[in-house]
Amino acid sequence: MAFEIIDPNKNQVPILVSVPHCGTEIPESIRAQYDEKMIAFIDDTDWFVDQLYDFVSEMGIKMIKAKYSRWVIDLNRNAESKPLYNDGRVITALCPTTNFNDKHIYLNEGPSQEEINQRISSYYYPYYDQIRLELTKLQKQFKHVLFFDAHSIRQFVPGIRAEKFPDLILGDADEKAADAKIINTAMEVLSNTSYSFSHNHPFKGGNLTRTFGQPEKNVHALQLEMAKLVYMDDSETKYEEVRASLIRKDLKQLFETLITTLNQMNQ
Fold it and tell me: How large is the average pLDDT for residues 23-47?
């Protein structure tokens, strides 16, 4: 299985949380292609994001999380590897051959198109198909549903921009992926925390948000990008309980408020 499903512990609410970049596994069949020094610590991983959000099951929210590393295939990219941005930043491919700092991760040139197609079939489409299935099941119970894509990033990634990132970045494809009521609800909560906050800049949501955010069909999508220092230690390598507990309180408030807004929309 290319992903894991975490079922809610109480009656389900109309939200599905996705964690597409927490995976760390590399299939044994392709592991020898990689530079062992690079995959000893896969730097572009959204480390511990699934752990950070593990409270959602107690709120009636189902989670889907990736098993394999984004260095196998990036679930938040276009299947044809079309760039998400055109502003000069480093954009890694569907099957990356470098990290975000342009360091090569393979011993050779990287996977052939035939192998990329195999990875799409084995790992990429199953993730999308499962999300589609889960959202369809939710819409049998609720008219309006929310797809929430959870991410994290190092505070500094020079290949993307010279300045440090804000702590929290809400993306909704320039307000095209969700109804204004949902966007405004999220912005109200996130902009009133102790963390620095930005909306649609420098990230406006990846391919998952842009694919599943169809408010005209009552399916809404948000992406939350989070600086790793918010919940990890200063080295951005270890989960930091005190920091994590603080942001978890704000995330719980965010979901509580989103649930209230969705309930109002579903009346």
Answer: 93
Q: Determine the residue type at 256.
A: E
| Poorest-pLDDT segment among 16-25, 61-70, 159-168, 190-199 | 159-168
Per the CB < 8 A criterion, the answer to whether 63 and 149 are in contact is no
* Separation between Cα atoms, residue 73 and residue 58, nearest integer Å: 30
C-beta separation of 48 from 150 below 8 A? no
**Quick one: 145 exposed, middle or buried, by C-beta within 10 A (0-12, 13-18, 19+)?**
buried
CB atoms within 10 A of CB 259: 18
Query: Which CA distances in Å does 73 have to 20, 23, 77, 130, 155?
Result: 10, 10, 9, 16, 23
Query: What pLDDT score does 161 carry?
Result: 84
With 80 as the cut, is the pLDDT of residue 3 above it? yes
Question: Where are the domains positioned within the chain?
Answer: 3-265
pLDDT for position 94:
95
Dist CA 209 CA 76 (whole Å) = 8
b (16+ CB within 10 A) / e for 222-231: bbbbbbbbbb
Query: What is the reported pTM?
Result: 0.96
- H or E segment at 225? strand 219-227
Identify which has the larger pLDDT, 241 or 40.
Answer: 241
Contact assessment for residue 81 and residue 94, using Cβ atoms and an 8 Å cutoff? yes
> Would the pLDDT of 57 be above 90?
yes
Q: Of the candidates 72, 227, 81, 96, which has an alpha carbon nearest to the alpha carbon of residue 157?
A: 227
Is 3-265 a domain of CATH 3.40.630.40?
yes
